[in-house]
Design brief:
With 112 residues, the chain is α+β, with helices and mostly antiparallel strands. The chain is globular and about 35 Å long. It contains two helices and six strands, in the order E-E-E-H-E-E-E-H. Helices cover 19% and strands 30% of the residues. The protein starts with a strand and ends in a 5-residue tail after the last helix. Strands 1, 2, 3, 4, 5 and 6 form a six-stranded mixed beta sheet that branches.
Length: 112
Amino acid sequence: MENLVRAVVVYDGRLLLVRETEDWELPSGTGQPAETAKAAAARVVYELTGYLADGSATLDGASAVVCQLLSEGPSEGARLAPARVRWTPIEETVSITLPPAVRDYIGGHTPV
């Protein structure tokens, strides 16, 4: 998918994952014309989950963006049902397919 942006949202030792198909994955979507990767990641997080986030840094070029969580709970109107959104403890993400740069980033957030 061209202009694919993956949002990496880590909060309290957990990674935000969504289930649009059969697998749990990072919130992902396509950037719009003239939209930065950071803005696209924040928009995708909000549209899919209802959580407000702010894209703060890119990983792996512009295909993965670290986002800061700005809201404690989701707003209404998210595209995905609550059962398709979860905060997964980082140590439980081993079986999730993630880009190497994302795996390296979240490795720095694993509780010891």
